[in-house]
Design goal:
heterodimer, A: 521 residues, alpha+beta, Dipeptide-binding Protein, domain 3, four-stranded antiparallel β-sheet, 16 helices, 31% helix, B: 308 residues, MetI-like fold, 15 helices
C-alpha cells in the first residue's frame, strides 16, 4: 500500500512537472494593432499580412538590424554586371511543413503565382525564373531592378508550397497554410487569434540564426485592437508580450515590477507636409520658415519622453539613403525660420502673428483624431506660433483624413508613414500621385528627373543609393515638408516569464525574435 | 389576421429595395474607394486602374447597383475587395458572436428592466422608485467604452474573476453582457414603469381590487401582463441593435462581431462587406418591426379586433 501511494505521488509529481513543462513552452503575444483583422495567411494575394506570416513562411532574403540583406532560403546570390540577371543559390535540406522539399523548381512555380495579384508589382522587372540546377535558380530581368532584394525580403514575398497553394485555391491561408518557416499553423480564427506550433525540423533560420528550431513550442498570437485592453491583459498575465506598446503606456509597463520593455529602431517617421499649391505655402520662403520652426528635439523630449529620434530628413535613419549632406538636413533653427519669413515679406505683428499686406499669416493645420497626433499637433501649433505663424487645428477621423487630402484643400498637416525603403520618396513626392499620397502636391521637373533616375535608372544598388540621396537632397531643398520625429518600436513583455534575445539581429521582432525567445524554467 | 400578416410582409418588399438603394448610394458617395487600401508603395497608377476595372468600380453606378442587387437576390453577397474573402463567410463568422452577445445582453436588460420597472411602479413616488429609476438612468448615460474598462479594472484586474478580453468560453461573455445590458436596462425599466402605472388606473384593475384579489397577484398576473405589450414591441425593435450596436464593447473586449466587421470595412471602403452588413442590419430592423407588430396583434385583443 505504501509502495502504491509512493508510486502515485511520484507519478503525480512527474505528471505535474510535465504539465508545467508543457505550459512553460507556450507563449501568448498580442499583435500590433495595425495587423488586427487580417483575413488570411496568403502572402501572394493579399494586401495585409500579420506577424504570423513571418513565422509560417520564409523568404529568399532577410534583413538584419542595419537593413542589410542576409541569407534566408537563399544561401547566396549574384547579380549580373548589367543587372539583367540574378542567380540565387538555395540552402540544401529545406522542406515545407508537409514534407515537400524546397528546391529551384519551387521558386519558379512560386513566382508564377503572382501575375494578376495585387502583389504582382514586386516582380514587375522579372521576365522569368529558370532552374539552373536543383539548388540554383536564375531570375532573368526585363530591366535592371536594384530593389529586387528588398522586394524579396518583404512579407509579401513569403514562399508557400505552390502545390498546396494551388490545391486550396481561394481558401489558401484561411484553413491551411504551408510554408518552410519555424512554426506551423495550427488554427486561425479571424479577428481573434492564431495558434502556431514549432516546426521541429527547422534548421535554416535567417542571417544570424543558430540553425536550430524555436525554443518555444507553441505560440498564440492574439488580436486586440484596443491598447488599454492589451495593456491590462499583459498586466494581469493574460498574455506574455505586446508587440506594440503605445508611448502612453510605456511608463505603466516600466513601473510594473514583473514587466519590461524592449526598444527596437523604428520604421516609421512623423512629418509635416506643406501643400505647395496653397497659399502661403506656394512661397518657398514660407515653407523654409515653417520647416525650420519645428523643434524636433523639444518634441522628442516633451511629448515622447526621449524615446525615438529627432528626424532631420524624410527617410528613417537606418536607411543609407537618409545620409544626405548636412546642408540639406532640416533641423530646428529659429533664426533661419524668422529670416525666411521676413524675406517672404511677412512682418511680425504686435500680437505675435506675422502680417503681409494686411493679411495675417494664419493657416489650418490638419491632424488626426488619435491622441498621438492631437498631442503632437498641439506642440507643433505652439512652435509655429513662436515664429509668428498662427495655426488652427482641424481634426479628422484617422480613417477619413486620406480622403480629405483628395479635395486638395489642405495647407499643412501632421502625419506619419511606416516604410523601410527609399522609394517612399517617390510615393509621397511624385507628380504622378497628387493629392494623396503626394500630399505636398510637389510637381517639380527637376524632382521628376531625379525620381526617374532613382526609381528606374540605376543598374545596381550603389547607383540606386546615390540616385536616391540626390533625389532626397533636392526634395529637402524645396521644403515641401518638415521632418518631426522617428518613433521606436516598443515591445512590452513579462520579464518574470520570458527570456528575450540579448541582441536582435533583425529590424523587427518576427522570425529571428521568436526563434530565440525562451521561457524561464 | 392572416391577411394582415401577408399585407405586412408585402409592405417590406418596397422598403427593402428603397433601403438597398439608400445604402448603395450613401457608400458610393463617400470620398475614397477600396482600391486605395490595396495599393502599396511602389504600385503604379496603371495598376490602380487595372484593379479598379477588375472589381468593376469603373462601371456606371446604376450598373454596379443592379449587378449587386441581382447577386443578392440569388443569395450571393459577393467577395470582399480588401479582405479578399466571400462576404457571406465573413458575415457568418461574425454573426454568431453578435447574436450571442446581443441576445444575452437583451435578456439581461429585459429581466432587470422589467423587475426594476415593476418595483418602481409598485412603489410609485417613493424613495425606492426615485432611487431605482435614477440609478438605471445614470447607468444608461455612461458610455459603454468607459463602463467596459471600469468593469475590466474591477472584475479582471482587481478581483481576477473574469478574463480581460477575448471570446473563448462563457467567462469571457460576463463583462460584455453586463456592459451592454446595463445600458439597455433604463429603457425597459422606464417603459415597464410607465405602462404599469397606466394599467394600474384601468377599470379592470380597480374591479380586481374591489373583489379583494391580493395586490401582488393583481400586479404580477394582471397589470404586468398588460404592461408587457409595449415592452415586447420595444424589444422587437431592438433586434437591429442586438446585431450591430455593440461596436465599442467588441473593441474594448477584443471580440469579433458584426459591428466590428462593419466599422473595419467602412474604414477600408470595402463596399461589398459594408453593403451586405448594412443590408442585414436593415433587414433585422424590418423583421423586428414586423415581429413587434405581429406580437402586438397576438397579445392585444383590442388590436386584433380592430383588424377585423
Amino acid at each position: 500500500m505504501k509502495y502504491n501511494l509512493s508510486t502515485l505521488l511520484a507519478t503525480t509529481a512527474i505528471g505535474s512537472c510535465l504539465a508545467l513543462s508543457a505550459f512553460a513552452q507556450e507563449v501568448t503575444v498580442v499583435m500590433a494593432p495595425n495587423e488586427v483583422g487580417a483575413t488570411s495567411y496568403n502572402p501572394v494575394a493579399s494586401s495585409m499580412q500579420p506577424v504570423g506570416t513571418y513565422l509560417i513562411y520564409d523568404r529568399l532574403i532577410a534583413k538584419d538590424e542595419n537593413l542589410a540583406y542576409v541569407p534566408q532560403l537563399a544561401e547566396s546570390w549574384v547579380e549580373a554586371d548589367d543587372g539583367m540577371a540574378w542567380t540565387f543559390t538555395l540552402k540544401p535540406g529545406v522542406t515545407f511543413h508537409n514534407g515537400t522539399p524546397f528546391a529551384a523548381q519551387t521558386v519558379v512555380d512560386w513566382l508564377a503565382l503572382y501575375p494578376g495579384t495585387e502583389n504582382a508589382y514586386l516582380f514587375d522587372a522579372v521576365e522569368r525564373a529558370e532552374v539552373v540546377s536543383e539548388l540554383e535558380v536564375r531570375f532573368v530581368m526585363k530591366r535592371p531592378d536594384p530593389n529586387l532584394l528588398y522586394n524579396l525580403s518583404t512579407v509579401f514575398a513569403s514562399i508557400p508550397d505552390p502545390a498546396a497553394y494551388a490545391e486550396a485555391g481561394e481558401d489558401y491561408g484561411v484553413f491551411d497554410a504551408v510554408g518552410t518557416g519555424p512554426f506551423r499553423l495550427e488554427s486561425f480564427e479571424i479577428g481573434q487569434q492564431t495558434v502556431l506550433v514549432r516546426n521541429d525540423d527547422y534548421a535554416w533560420g535567417p542571417g544570424a540564426a543558430t540553425g536550430k528550431p524555436a525554443k518555444i513550442e507553441r505560440l498564440t498570437l492574439r488580436e486586440i485592437a484596443e491598447s488599454s485592453t492589451a495593456f491590462l491583459e499583459l498586466k494581469t498575465g493574460g498574455v506574455d508580450m505586446l508587440l506594440n506598446v503605445p508611448t502612453d503606456f510605456v511608463g505603466e509597463v516600466e513601473g510594473a515590477s514583473d514587466l519590461s520593455v524592449l526598444q527596437l529602431a523604428g520604421q516609421d517617421l512623423v512629418y509635416m507636409p506643406m501643400n505647395v499649391t496653397q497659399a502661403p505655402f506656394d512661397d518657398i520662403k514660407v515653407r523654409e520658415g515653417v520647416a525650420f520652426a519645428i523643434n524636433q528635439q523639444e518634441i522628442l523630449d516633451a511629448v515622447f519622453g526621449g524615446m525615438g529620434k529627432a528626424a532631420d530628413g524624410f527617410l528613417i535613419s537606418s536607411l543609407p539613403e537618409s545620409k544626405i549632406a548636412d546642408e540639406f538636413r532640416i533641423s530646428y533653427n529659429p533664426e533661419r525660420a524668422n529670416k525666411a519669413l521676413e524675406d517672404a515679406g511677412w512682418v511680425m505683428g504686435t500680437d505675435g502673428v506675422r502680417t503681409k499686406d494686411g493679411a495675417r499669416l494664419s493657416v489650418k493645420l490638419w491632424t488626426q483624431s488619435d491622441s498621438f497626433f492631437r498631442r503632437l499637433s498641439e506642440v507643433v501649433q505652439a512652435q509655429m506660433k513662436a515664429v509668428g505663424v498662427e495655426a488652427e487645428l482641424v481634426t479628422f477621423d484617422s480613417a477619413a483624413i486620406r480622403d480629405q487630402y483628395k479635395t486638395g484643400a489642405h495647407q499643412v498637416a501632421v502625419r506619419s508613414y511606416l516604410w523601410d525603403n527609399a522609394d517612399i520618396l517617390e510615393w509621397f513626392f511624385s507628380a504622378t500621385r497628387p493629392f494623396y499620397p503626394n500630399v505636398s502636391m510637389l510637381d517639380d521637373p527637376k524632382a521628376e528627373t531625379l525620381k526617374d533616375a532613382a526609381m528606374t535608372g540605376a543598374k545596381n544598388s550603389a547607383e540606386r543609393e546615390a540616385a536616391f540621396v540626390a533625389y532626397h537632397e533636392y526634395i529637402n531643398s524645396q521644403f515641401p515638408y518638415a521632418p518631426i520625429y522617428e518613433p521606436v518600436q516598443i515591445i512590452g513583455y513579462n520579464a518574470e516569464r520570458l527570456v528575450m534575445p540579448e541582441v536582435l539581429h533583425a529590424p523587427r521582432f518576427n522570425t529571428l525574435g521568436f526563434l530565440e525567445l525562451d521561457v524561464k524554467e | 389576421m392572416l391577411g394582415y400578416v401577408i399585407r405586412r410582409i408585402l409592405m417590406l418588399v418596397p422598403v427593402f429595395f428603397a433601403v438597398s438603394v439608400v445604402i448603395f448610394s450613401m457608400i458610393h458617395m463617400l470620398p475614397g474607394d477600396p482600391i486605395e487600401n490595396l495599393l502599396r508603395v511602389g504600385s503604379s497608377p496603371a495598376q490602380r486602374e487595372a484593379l479598379t476595372a477588375k472589381y468593376g468600380l469603373d462601371r456606371p453606378l446604376v450598373e454596379q447597383y443592379l449587378l449587386w442587387m441581382g447577386n443578392v437576390l440569388t443569395g450571393d453577397l459577393g467577395t470582399a475587395i480588401v479582405q479578399r474573402r466571400p462576404v457571406a463567410q465573413l458575415v457568418a463568422q461574425a454573426l454568431p458572436y453578435s447574436l450571442t452577445l446581443g441576445g444575452l445582453a437583451l435578456c439581461f436588460s429585459t429581466v432587470l428592466g422589467v423587475v426594476v420597472g415593476t418595483i418602481a411602479a409598485s412603489w410609485r413616488g417613493s424613495w425606492l422608485d426615485q432611487g431605482l429609476m435614477g440609478g438605471v438612468l445614470f447607468g444608461s448615460m455612461l458610455p459603454n467604452f468607459w463602463i467596459g474598462l471600469l468593469m475590466i479594472l474591477v472584475f479582471s484586474v482587481s478581483l481576477g474573476w473574469t478574463p480581460v478580453s477575448g471570446a473563448r468560453g462563457w467567462e469571457s461573455l460576463v463583462l460584455p453582457v453586463l456592459t451592454i445590458g446595463l445600458g439597455g436596462t433604463a429603457l425597459v425599466a422606464r417603459v415597464t414603469r410607465i405602462a404599469m402605472i397606466d394599467t394600474q388606473g384601468k377599470d379592470f384593475v380597480l374591479l380586481l381590487h374591489a373583489k379583494g384579489v391580493h395586490p401582488l397577484t393583481i400586479q404580477v398576473r394582471h397589470v404586468l401582463r398588460h404592461a408587457l405589450i409595449p415592452v415586447v414591441t420595444i424589444l422587437a425593435l431592438r433586434i437591429g441593435w442586438i446585431l450591430g450596436g455593440a461596436v465599442t464593447v467588441e473593441v474594448v473586449f477584443a471580440r469579433p462581431g458584426l459591428g466590428s466587421l462593419l466599422i473595419k470595412s467602412l474604414n477600408q471602403h470595402d463596399y461589398p462587406v459594408v453593403q451586405a452588413s448594412l443590408l442585414i442590419l436593415a433587414m433585422a430592423v424590418m423583421l423586428g418591426t414586423l415581429m413587434g407588430d405581429l406580437l402586438q396583434a397576438a397579445m392585444d385583443p383590442r388590436f386584433r379586433d380592430s383588424l377585423t
